[in-house]
Amino acid sequence: MDTEGAVGGRETPARRRGQGELEAQVLSVLGEATEPVTAAWVLQRIGSGLSYSTVITILTRLHAKQAVTRTGPKRPVLWQPVANEAGLAALRMRRLLDKQSDRDAVLSSFVSVLSADDEELLRSLLAESGPGAPGAPTDRPEG
């Protein structure tokens, strides 16, 4: 039984991690590396009682989400981040958007629920990217 400790002679259940918390921890640790690293290296720095297979599972999921890269079939497999935690969130948002049939409606709804500060930040970021910049919006006719 996985426990965090005993309280009054009783064992207390381990706190369940939030969705994406382990992925964020792994990405954070990978972000500290100056070169591609092994899963064992990641495990050593995370600690917190995780198993090696759990770290491999997390790395494999991050790889499927294109948040990390891995070396080919040679051993040991080395892992490297493509995206940090913010980048991973952006990848998730992009995948969700790609699944929608009415992108305009989704983006419009998203912008309508932003705070004034977030909306201003988004406008600023779009202006900085400018026309022709990678990922910049293309000119489309109104209507």
Structure characterization notes:
- The chain is mainly alpha-helical.
- The protein contains 6 helices and 4 strands; from the N terminus they run ββαααββααα.
- It has a two-stranded antiparallel sheet with strand order 1-2. Strands 3-4 form a two-stranded antiparallel sheet.
- Strand 3 (68-70) and strand 4 form a beta hairpin.
- Helix 2 crosses helix 3.
- It is elongated.
- 11% of the residues are buried.
Spatial order of the strands in the main sheet? 1-2
Structural category: mainly alpha
Beta content: 5-15%
Average of the residue pLDDT scores: 80
What is the H-and-E element order? EEHHHEEHHH
Distance between the termini: 60 Å
Helical run tally: 6
Number of E strands: 4
Query: Helix fraction?
Result: 40-55%
**Largest β-sheet summary:** 2 strands, antiparallel
Uncertain runs: 1-5, 139-143
What Rg, in angstroms, do the CA atoms define? 20 Å
Cα shape: elongated
